[in-house]
Design goal:
With 231 residues, this protein is of the alpha+beta class. It is built from nine helices and eight strands.
């Protein structure tokens, strides 16, 4: 009974290692070649999990061979534009000045409903507001809005914008982060005073506590959870 468990665990850890070797971009934005490698790795790893007669090495060797091939091809693609275009393709414009390129949509086999959905996910609900849009090599839609429909910036208003910098998450779900406090340039005494001012004795009572270097604070206490139930 323990043999299938340990074989599966070893293959699971090796696949995680393999995905890490392929890079962080694999998780969210896969190119066609990368998607093929991922599918093949999953299929190859599943065989020794199901058939105990197959040596474990016969599952690991193909996995790392595929990953080595992917890393090599990725390195070559960085140096060769032709190879990169062959494996990943090129971005395809689909909208220019509010006009949809129907021929490009047919070539990509993208329906008008899919295009409009992607526009809405990009925050655009009026097709006429789009100056330019193209489908990237990973399948995502990049959208450039018409200049007249863009929000007015401080530079356009002739005003000087103040940069508050990022918010540092000091406490998340009851867990304090000393590194964030140090990066903020504050001490533990300051943090304790903010907790007390907001009715919290310890970080365990805090759901979210963020602050920036300008003194802006986001503070949310944990909601009280009722014990038991019943009507």
């Amino acid at each position: 009974m323990l043999v299938p468990f340990f074989r599966t665990l070893v293959l699971y850890l090796c696949i995680i290692l393999a995905v890490r070797l392929m890079g962080k971009r694999q998780v969210g934005e896969m190119q066609p070649a990368e998607l093929v490698i991922t599918i093949l790795v999953s299929a190859v790893a599943a065989v020794p999990m199901q058939d105990l007669k197959i040596p474990l090495a016969h599952g690991l060797i193909p996995v790392f061979t595929l990953i080595a091939a992917e890393v090599l091809i990725s390195a070559l693609s960085l140096k060769s534009v032709s190879l990169r275009n062959l494996l990943s393709g090129k971005p395809v414009p689909v909208i220019r000045r509010g006009q949809v390129d129907q021929k490009a949509l047919r070539k990509l086999r993208i329906s008008l409903d899919d295009l409009l959905e992607d526009l809405r996910l990009s925050g655009v609900f009026d097709l006429r507001q789009v100056a330019f849009a193209q489908v990237e090599t990973n399948g995502r839609l990049s959208v450039l809005v018409q200049a007249a429909d863009l929000p007015v910036t401080a530079r356009q208003m002739g005003q000087e914008a103040r940069d508050n910098g990022p918010f540092y998450v000091l406490v998340a779900d009851g867990r304090a982060d000393p590194r964030a406090l140090k990066a903020l340039g504050r001490g533990q005494d300051w943090m304790d005073s903010i907790l007390r001012a907001n009715g919290a004795e310890t970080p365990r009572q805090v759901f979210l506590f963020c602050a920036d270097k300008q003194g802006n604070i986001i503070f949310l206490k944990k909601e009280q959870q009722s014990c038991g139930g019943g009507y």
